[in-house]
Specification:
It contains four helices and no strands. It is mainly alpha-helical.
Amino acid sequence: MNFDHPLKNLSGEQLLGADKKPLTLRWACTESLLAHYPNQEIDGKEKMDRFRLAHRIEQRGDIDLKIEEVSKLKELVGRYFTPLIVGQVWQLLDPAESK
């Protein structure tokens, strides 16, 4: 999986963050992994698992993901972001299911 894929608006223009840097699949996944979810209590092991996955994603290059990791990313991105981001991220993480 290449996490450098750019995220775009519905017109096809690249989305930019507040710092004017392009938003990517990497950004969406790491943001959702490292976010605090007020209505969700998680233990230290889960926090560490999320940290490790975010750290792997932050490394440049292609990354192989386990099925469980794809599921976790889809779950967290789905909670954290709007439909514009969720739709693109899910299509990139799991193209077969998105059809």
